[in-house]
């Protein structure tokens, strides 16, 4: 896939990177990435993927922009209040980079529709705010054999990992699934919502940007793989920790007693 003269100028700082260069930028242009959520994580994620030149971005969100969103969901602005987030985000991407095609999916992703939505994309990035969506997306990505970059936010903390459980590691062991890391969702009401607990706005920017970096790594292959590693950030102490996790033979997707979730 060739780059126009405008694209060569736009992506010049990528083109001189030895680990990306022309071939890597061509891969970015050819990539189709589905972003679940146009909120706190999705806002910086979408902006950096669009700026990087990802050729086709899908956005899934069923919500509208609220004044309380603007403290952290920086892809939206005050004039967007009351608009569908997918439409507001699509307009922002068009202003940022006209070379990016956007497909807006104004709906809530669930087990019933996840497979159909994911099928048309190469990579999925999930930044939703509820466990039902996280399990639906991770299960669907497993069955569809799609890489998944997933992150979550707390009040002053965030986490990030990459999943390719349909592959094996260098030792021949199956890669872990999301259900290896979190076997079961917490009981309803056990984890307070963002509205109830609050959240540091800039934290969403940090974690969404890290998600974008991992999506670009999945596309181009630079650096060290994050499969089987969970990055955790404590913003109060500004401490990053990395936890390794492995395949759990008891998980219901690719474990010894695999079901058909």
Strand order of the largest sheet: 3-2-1-4-5-6-7-8
How does the major sheet shape up?
8 strands, mixed
Residue windows where pLDDT falls under 50 for at least 5 positions: none
Q: Over all CA atoms, what is the radius of gyration?
A: 18 Å
Going by helix content, strand content and strand pairing, the class is alpha/beta
Number of helices: 10
Q: Can you give the mean pLDDT?
A: 95
What percent strand? 15-25%
Q: Let me know the number of strands.
A: 8
- Quaternary structure classification: single chain
Q: What is the global morphology?
A: globular
Order of helices and strands: HHHEHEHEHEHEEHHHEE
Helix content: 25-40%
Instruction: Give the N-terminus to C-terminus distance in angstroms.
Output: 37 Å
Description:
The protein has helices at 5-10, 12-15, 21-30, 42-52, 85-96, 111-118, 131-144, 178-181, 194-197, 201-220; strands spanning 32-36, 56-60, 101-105, 123-126, 148-153, 157-163, 229-234, 239-244. It has 261 residues and is an alpha/beta fold. An 8-stranded mixed sheet has the order 3-2-1-4-5-6-7-8, sandwiched between helices. The model has no long low-confidence stretch (mean pLDDT 95).
Task: List key phrases describing it.
alpha/beta; 10 helices
Task: Give the topology.
Elements: H1 5-10, H2 12-15, H3 21-30, E1 32-36, H4 42-52, E2 56-60, H5 85-96, E3 101-105, H6 111-118, E4 123-126, H7 131-144, E5 148-153, E6 157-163, H8 178-181, H9 194-197, H10 201-220, E7 229-234, E8 239-244
Parallel strand pairs: 1-2, 1-4, 2-3, 4-5
Antiparallel strand pairs: 5-6, 6-7, 7-8
Helix pairs in contact: 4-5, 4-10, 6-7
């Amino acid at each position: 896939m060739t780059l126009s003269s405008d694209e060569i100028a736009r992506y010049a700082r990528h083109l001189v990177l030895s680990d990306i260069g022309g071939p890597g930028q061509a891969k970015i242009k050819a990539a189709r990435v589905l972003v679940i959520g146009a909120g706190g994580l999705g806002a910086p994620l979408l902006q950096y993927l669009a700026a990087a030149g990802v050729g086709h971005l899908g956005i899934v969100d069923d919500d509208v922009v609220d004044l309380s969103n603007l403290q952290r969901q920086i892809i939206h602005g005050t004039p967007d209040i009351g608009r569908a987030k997918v439409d507001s985000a699509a307009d922002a991407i068009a202003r940022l980079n006209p070379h990016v095609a956007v497909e807006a999916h104004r709906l809530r992703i669930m087990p019933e529709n996840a497979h159909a939505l994911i099928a048309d994309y190469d990579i999925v990035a999930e930044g939703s705010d509820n466990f039902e969506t996280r399990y639906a997306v991770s299960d669907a990505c497993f069955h569809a054999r799609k890489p998944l970059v997933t992150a979550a936010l707390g009040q002053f903390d965030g986490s990030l990992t990459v999943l390719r459980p349909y592959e094996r590691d260098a030792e021949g062991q199956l890669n872990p699934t999301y259900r290896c890391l979190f076997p079961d969702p917490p009981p309803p009401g056990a984890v307070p919502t963002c509205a109830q607990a609050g959240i540091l706005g800039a934290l969403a920017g940090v974690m969404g940007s890290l998600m974008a970096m991992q999506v670009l790594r999945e596309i181009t292959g630079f650096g060290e793989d994050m499969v089987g590693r969970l990055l955790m950030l404590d913003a109060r102490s500004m401490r990053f920790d990395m936890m390794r996790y492995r395949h759990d033979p008891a998980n219901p997707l690719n474990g010894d007693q695999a079901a058909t979730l």
